[in-house]
Amino acid sequence: MGSADSKLNFRKAVIQLTTKTQPVEATDDAFWDQFWADTATSVQDVFALVPAAEIRAVREESPSNLATLCYKAVEKLVQGAESGCHSEKEKQIVLNCSRLLTRVLPYIFEDPDWRGFFWSTVPGAGRGGGEDDDENARPLAESLLLAIADLLFCPDFTVQSHRRSTVDSAEDVHSLDSCEYIWEAGVGFAHSPQPNYIHDTNRTELLKLLLTCFSEAMYLPPAPDSGSTNPWVQFFCSTENRHALPLFTSLLNTVCAYDPVGYGIPYNHLLFSDYREPLVEEAAQVLIVTLDHDSATSTSPTVDGTTTGTAMDDIDPPGPENLFVNYLSRIHREEDFQFILKGIARLLSNPLLQTYLPNSTKKIQFHQELLVLFWKLCDFNKFLFFVLKSSDVLDILVPILYFLNDARADQSRVGLMHIGVFILLLLSGERNFGVRLNKPYSVRVPMDIPVFTGTHADLLIVVFHKIITSGHQRLQPLFDCLLTIIVNVSPYLKSLSMVAANKLLHLLEAFSTTWFLFSASQNHHLVFFLLEVFNNIIQYQFDGNSNLVYAIIRKRNVFHQLANLPTDPPTIHKALQRRRRAPEPLSRTGSQEGASMEGSRPAAPAEPGTLKTSLVATPGIDKLTEKSQVSEDGTLRSLEPAPQQGPADGSPTEEEPSPAWREQRRLSSASASGQWSPTSEWVLSWKSKLPLQTIMRLLQVLVPQVEKICIDKGLTDESEILRFLQHGTLVGLLPVPHPILIRKYQANSGTAMWFRTYMWGVIYLRNVDPPVWYDTDVKLFEIQRV
What we know:
Blueprint: H1 3-19, H2 29-32, H3 43-49, H4 52-61, H5 63-83, H6 88-109, H7 133-136, H8 140-151, H9 197-214, H10 231-236, H11 244-256, H12 276-290, E1 300-301, E2 307-308, H13 323-330, H14 334-353, H15 367-380, H16 383-387, H17 394-407, H18 414-428, H19 431-436, H20 456-470, H21 479-489, H22 498-511, H23 514-518, H24 524-540, H25 546-554, H26 556-563, H27 569-581, E3 611-613, H28 621-624, E4 625-630, E5 636-638, H29 659-667, H30 680-687, H31 693-713, H32 718-727, E6 741-745, H33 749-766, E7 783-785
Antiparallel strand pairs: 1-2, 3-7, 4-5, 4-6
Helix pairs in contact: 4-5, 5-6, 5-8, 6-9, 8-9, 9-12, 11-12, 11-14, 12-15, 14-17, 15-18, 17-18, 17-20, 18-21, 20-21, 20-22, 21-24, 22-24, 22-25, 25-32
């Protein structure tokens, strides 16, 4: 039968289904088989020939027919899994049923009355006699998930058959050890099977159906307690699924072994269509959804060694019940870590390679899924410490900085900005990250930033400065995070370049203008963070940082102005009046923007009309992080319960000098609408805590000496001054060094919920062909147009 006839017959069957007012018996095979037995329709055909309005009409007007359609389609998948799909006809039926269920499931999820349907058992649903009665007890969802798992390891359908002869070659599906059929070499598996286009496309279709099963999460509004587990994921990742281990391994290895470059030959991808990429994308999406497990709510040891959690936790086995999370947490061999890190770094760097030889390699689009996967590896595994053991961490850092810089003006990519910053915040809590940043930066990825010669630390500072001064307004909540990262690494930075030093002082200048300090209740925190950066470098890395010391001397009036910040009501009022005239967030002047790197394109805003998904708010920096003090021997001591110095940390519970301040904090959210107004008491409460002593002492000692050189030698040349500062010393002249404070990321339910909405938003937007969830009533986020 031709494909046109095939489509026509399929469409006729759909019309019959939507026009029948009477229930059709489940036993009426002649009717139901029209949907899958005699047709060869692609997934795109199915989406075109089964319109949304008709699915909803059947759901409302003849619900029993929709129920029977789902039940019969699942039954066909179960039969295919049982028999092992030996004939072409059986394979075609499985694919047709898989496509049909992918089309229909979202419409079942969007209606709360139908949500329990897949979790109910279908009474005596014509399974043929009594022998299968115990099978009848399985809810439809479980039968469907187990069938998909079996089908993903089905010889000659989704994996290579190991049998040589064709005579009696049916491998028994039930005795088959799927661990011998893992899809790709890598973690726990050494053999790389021959690539097979048909197997890859069949896997992709089944994974798409699996992802659609998991997507019920999109139809539930974001819940603050976010501990709600997804029943589909929970069952699929439990011991009920005998393929859990080989499937987890197959997904992870397929993603990490993928090389989009076209087998290392430039432009090769133009000659060979890459059928692997859709499989890798689907594998990455399924993997991150199965790993959506809130580590903050699971039993975790607290500081005093007891475990937090409810009484229910006592009866749980050690470790998460989700086997995918469990397996991920148990990866530990060096070579496995190396394979994963190299794979993720290679894929994250892929869009950067584009810029050297345009179009020479295939440009991948799934970097957001990879960043979520990287986050999960650090969250559930000791992977983070492996990553920081060598300078390989820089192969993750550079692509993240590239994405942050590239997306800074694009409102549709605000989620990408957040996850990039969260990962860097997590890394910055470890001393090794700061140390690694001292490696010279020589890879010249064309980026829209000033040219500089220096280290990876310089690159990070220059990119952060660019985000703060030329990103869009929606990024303001990230400023605290960006500066916290710089504070965390600052005690380890051996030598900042002049470009980076000037950028830091430009930020201080911008953040310490009176109108900025007085226009919102939290803005002064940014000044505290920057002063902490300068103090850390002066106290712990003075030698080698003559560029920064010179920049501080040149901009000394900024520090004097801060020390003499006015606190009287008329001046405060005047500063805010000035703000109404100039609402520009930060002045770009005085930042000496150098020419951008050659070959770079400016960061572009989103095209009007670009779709984006809403995100839940992220917790403030005080909830995101936990303060620790670095002891003499380098170990960290948590400081959380004890009160801390200064309002720099923004934790409202700690040092609230006055009810007025508490009130201001409450109103800070209203500052945009102009209701919030600063008071003298409020300014005094934090001005007295500005940590200016070290810098003032440095200026007191060095400024006269520098001025003397200039007068003596009639100098305007900075190289001479820099040479003097390089050999200068402040030993014994500075206050006693303060202990180093690190703000480490701490898991919390707020970020867990943020990750869930972000991840599903990415998956929603990236699945456009076919548009699985498009135009369905999702509740986890809103779809917005830029």
